[in-house]
Amino acid sequence: MNASPSFQHDSGPPPKNQTASRNPAETHPAKTGRSLRPHLRADLTASLVVFLVALPLCVGIAVASGAPPELGLITGIVGGLVTGLLPGSSLQVSGPAAGLTVLVYEAVREYGLATLGVIVLAAGLIQVTLGALRLGRWFRAISVAVVEGMLAGIGLVIIAGQLYSMADRQAPASGLEKIIALPGTLVGAAGSAQALASLAVGAGVIVVMACWRFLPSKVRVVPGALAAVLLAIAATALLDLPIDRIQVTGLLDAISLLGAEDLGRLADVGVMGTVVAFTLIASAESLFSAAAVDRLHTGPGTDYDKELMAQGAGNTVCGLLGALPLTAVIVRSATNVYAGAKTKASRVWHGVWLLLFTALLPGALGVIPIAALAGVLVYSGWKLLPIRQLAPLWRDHRGEALILLVTAVAIVTVSMFEGVLIGIALSICKTAWETSHLHVSVSDADRGSVRVALTGNATFLRLPKMLEALEALPKNRPIELDLSGLRHLDHACRTALTSWAERHNHNDVAPVRISATA
């Protein structure tokens, strides 16, 4: 498929314009004899920053997915302790991702939490298999426009769904219903004091996160998402606001180990379709994230096959524990790089901090307002929308922009899986159309004959144009058909040319001569 300009959705500072060549010694200090201690300190510091960013996102994504908040933390822990230890990408961080929220919510609503673990397990095993077969690099062949359209559609559905949570209302099931019913829901919420308080808390979180990057650097040491949630907790407590908080059951209570009988759900065609969707979207998002992270540092690049196996191993463990699926997450990964991480130890330590927090301070989750997490996800959903990139993309690559828009609209109006398939199909059709250029040149030749030269690619997509040009030729003059300029002649065009030549020779005295064959 044709490549289009890549995008990055990242709430951190802009990528550094580094041109230095990658030197393995820079990220492997032991090879140069230097002490590991400075790197240990840098990795520990970076891991704490990533932990503070990941904590509210893990909880918020789980709640938005219709799952207990502890499951999001379990996925974050697995992303650090399992995926983080495995080879692939050295600095990108994995955990529950906003990009899978809609799909997870639909799976939980349709099949239940018990089946979610089976779906995640199967997707993880497929990822491991694909990586072992060295197919990880082929996920990069998915059109960037499709991935961007997928993220944009997800972002729209997340924003619409979480606005209902901010308004203390139940969201409709489908993405289109969420958007259509949203204005009436927000107007109706104006008559409820509880709904207004909830909306105010969520809106405050969005404002804090949006303005956080304008504050002094010393203040921005604390991640914006964490600061916004802490301020929301303080405001809710001080003003004694009547809004809902997260319901906490405990980490061990949330774990639901799979049994042999659960695997029987894979015989369901719908479940297997969801498995395919999980595999496709999680793999593409992880490997696109890896490509983005590689541009942010000068260390060793990602081994895409090993990274896909690492993601699959993490999802296999998450599935066995009944947790949410994991992917590599660009926001956490970029935060890890900008915080000064040098080795994979930083992402492992971030998993340790998540584990210690949930084991020692589980009650701390119970004071978090649901509206605050909804505000975090509304802001995250907004960051998924390629608003700044859309205008230049439309100007320079209009076909790619149309694929992006159609994919996003299809995800909102139909479903995640069908929307992605529609986007991929459009991308394939666009590429086939653009690569099947055919030029028909007609000129006078010697002895009163007409010379027709075909150059380019003669495929069924250009068959009408070719036949229209041939049928317009004079029927009383000899015709010399030159096919030497064709790079490709498919079966449909070859058959059509043969039939046209036979009809012309049969009905007219002027013969058709083919001077060369493709």
Automatic annotation (TrEMBL):
Lipid bilayer topology: Multi-pass membrane protein
UniProt KW Transmembrane keyword: yes
Superkingdom as given in the UniProt entry: Bacteria
Transmembrane feature ranges: 44-64, 71-91, 111-133, 145-166, 186-212, 219-239, 313-331, 352-382, 402-429
Stretches the record annotates as Disordered: 1-36
The keyword Magnesium is annotated on this UniProt entry: no
Pfam families, sorted: Sulfate_transp
Keyword annotations of the record: Membrane, Transmembrane, Transmembrane helix
Main location: membrane
GO annotations of cellular component type: membrane
GO term, biological process aspect, one: transmembrane transport
Domain spans labelled SLC26A/SulP transporter: 40-407
Protein name: MFS superfamily sulfate permease-like transporter
Protein localization: Membrane
